[in-house]
Description:
Six copies of one chain form a homohexamer. The first copy, chain A, is an alpha+beta fold.
Amino acid sequence: MSAAPPDGGVAPTTGLTHVDEHGKAHMVDVTGKEATYRIAEARCFVQTVASAEQISLTREGSDLLASARFAGIMAAKQTSALIPLCHSIRVHGVDVDVRSLPNGFAVAAVVAIIEKTGVEMEALTACTTAALVLIRAIWAVDPLASIEDLSLWHKSGGRSGTWNGQPTGDRS
Amino acid sequence: MSAAPPDGGVAPTTGLTHVDEHGKAHMVDVTGKEATYRIAEARCFVQTVASAEQISLTREGSDLLASARFAGIMAAKQTSALIPLCHSIRVHGVDVDVRSLPNGFAVAAVVAIIEKTGVEMEALTACTTAALVLIRAIWAVDPLASIEDLSLWHKSGGRSGTWNGQPTGDRS
Amino acid sequence: MSAAPPDGGVAPTTGLTHVDEHGKAHMVDVTGKEATYRIAEARCFVQTVASAEQISLTREGSDLLASARFAGIMAAKQTSALIPLCHSIRVHGVDVDVRSLPNGFAVAAVVAIIEKTGVEMEALTACTTAALVLIRAIWAVDPLASIEDLSLWHKSGGRSGTWNGQPTGDRS
Amino acid sequence: MSAAPPDGGVAPTTGLTHVDEHGKAHMVDVTGKEATYRIAEARCFVQTVASAEQISLTREGSDLLASARFAGIMAAKQTSALIPLCHSIRVHGVDVDVRSLPNGFAVAAVVAIIEKTGVEMEALTACTTAALVLIRAIWAVDPLASIEDLSLWHKSGGRSGTWNGQPTGDRS
Amino acid sequence: MSAAPPDGGVAPTTGLTHVDEHGKAHMVDVTGKEATYRIAEARCFVQTVASAEQISLTREGSDLLASARFAGIMAAKQTSALIPLCHSIRVHGVDVDVRSLPNGFAVAAVVAIIEKTGVEMEALTACTTAALVLIRAIWAVDPLASIEDLSLWHKSGGRSGTWNGQPTGDRS
Amino acid sequence: MSAAPPDGGVAPTTGLTHVDEHGKAHMVDVTGKEATYRIAEARCFVQTVASAEQISLTREGSDLLASARFAGIMAAKQTSALIPLCHSIRVHGVDVDVRSLPNGFAVAAVVAIIEKTGVEMEALTACTTAALVLIRAIWAVDPLASIEDLSLWHKSGGRSGTWNGQPTGDRS
């Protein structure tokens, strides 16, 4: 191994990022990338099976939805400790939205940053964690609740520009 | 507020755990519960849109699947730092299984413990984190990949005994 | 240094715990202590200078008080990562109470556990963190707010039995 | 919820930062702010009840004061993991000063940074944690010790410029 | 994957722990093991190249040696967050000893616990971290300093009983 | 203590960084330093005593080496939480290389960054943690394995320019 800096991080033969030409994982060196304003939004749906009456107390304003929001925001800051090859970044802003719907909860997380690397994983982690908090909270009345359609919804900024996961539909 | 220990943690009027009779969240006191051997298994499916050839390099044995397994195991140990009202517990064993299928990845996480409280959230957190690692790794070739059917699959031990989320079907 | 286990943890010549006879800090070995049910309660007062009208929106039910409660509960679980010589323990239950009063906020944190070591620092850390969240939240309207009378209020369990910090008075 | 970036973070109707117009907490987007050199200093007083002789071994040079300093410095780096809506920042410098006085300890923490957001919470967290370490260390001889007058003392840099909490007095 | 608990954790065909029969890593289930009093001691030597005069200020009593001790103690508590397959345990006691010698520093860490799993990694992690703090502190005067002979020195308790790494010699 | 920013961080009378003129540790204020591209490489050797056949299953491609790589990468991101006076930085890239040799494992970690402070401790921490994972994995067949020659190997960038620990030799 030479003391040369790690290569530019694009795995030419695999098409997979974060895996080098020998199939080994490494943290991609983003030094050469430009620090730009980047936003990512992730969404998911917590699908409930119990009746709306059973979970009616999970209304806006109670600690339940606040708990999901806080957990999502705090999880965004812990992303690099959870996802091995993620860079540690300084999140500039996080907004987690949790909506109570008749058959579940719609969760969306928007994360903004000015960095050399994207913020998609932070948005996905915030969204997931908020959803897990909901799953746990309604456990006693709805053990069959599940998380569905957890994916990136929107990103902008960076070399690849604006991208929308589901531009013509709406999952929730 | 008296110096009395927190109440038994069952929210009588709401049916929701972790929310007391005033709608305020608290960490349920599990002192009165019995420390028993408990297992929980969570599962999800990472649904890919790209062709199998495109993501063919994510085969067994590469760092990719190992990365997902390690991240899942480590995340199980961080659960109480992510989910606000979860108790910090000593996980006795974690097994994360990641299988490459034609249209995605099946992820399962089993966590075992001897504690006064369940281990469901640890299994869900391990499963989720392993799935997020996969989502990130195949990003470049499949940005539309999503996590589906993330839920508890099995639990045993504790007062409520054995429970199976989907006893007669198989999601993957 | 012998391979003998660390001594019983009482610093005979100093009267100070956590400092050995040479003035060096170490983590006291609690192996010989009994695991008993222990409770500790810490209290403090967040004293505001701004008028009650100015901070009137910090009423019960808003995210503000919930935020302080959640932060306090989560901080209790992080105590051993903040206080160098604290043992890492499994908190059994945490209850953080935040009350809005005319001239500030009364904060109390009760932590319960069955361990070989006390839970005083967990209660103090929970109480402090909840208070810091309040300080930050009202910053814009009250930069002179301060935390006062932060101390242990009650403990029970363990060798030293029940103890009350201020048995005949009430700070809040 | 749109994919638009979170709003500018000023809560117009409440006067409270970190709470949007619906009373929901979010992490304020600081993208539009300028990265400037910022300093904040927080102070508190650990008030002892035991006689000076009883706690005389907590003199300068022993591990006790060093322990408080280290814990304060390390806590400054963990602030964003403790305070839910704090941004994760790269602290440029931390200085924690602990002075032994006849009736207690004066604690001061100065934190410096070049960021888009202030460093007040880091200074407060460092100061608080150092004080908690002292409280714990003298526990055996002074269980009634308390933390008093914990507040911001000075800040400079940022849009609001220099500010002094107690410009004409001295608490310690 | 069945919902059966993870297997007993012994990899029969490899002789390696933590790797199952398919070469996959998992966290060994220690449920069947007995919780016993266990001690482990790790040692290493920080070898300096600069003259003793150059590093003479690293004498006993200064913050330098205290810093190494505190960092070692705190690292012992973070072991399970660093070593992927380590169980999270409650450390009962930690003692880190740092001695200044003419040609370097002898570091020893003893960790005690009552658990179902050993505490060797906690002792190694504490010893390593204390040594890294010393390496950093003397950097300016001795950039060629190195850590040598970092290994387990002693363990007792558990199924395998007492073991001494170097029973007849002394490295330092 | 004045509210002035901490001093420039050079300890004039001691030659030791991170210790001020009174022997007290503080986190050096790096505000005045220039943010430049910096690389550091650390190396060590995990010396085995067991025969190569006994540890033959630790070959390239198994989870064992991947585990060491991942742990090293993740540890680099946790450096500031382990080493008390280290600044928290955003690592730009990490590459951990683990090679299986007849009598042990050669471990090298390269970390790259654009910051005002060096990245040596991140490289050392990554290298150390990867080595500890190997030590643990081969435990059952080689309890006498040790870590040797753990030190900085190369650094470039920053005021002091390029530096090579062992320019004419090769430890592994």
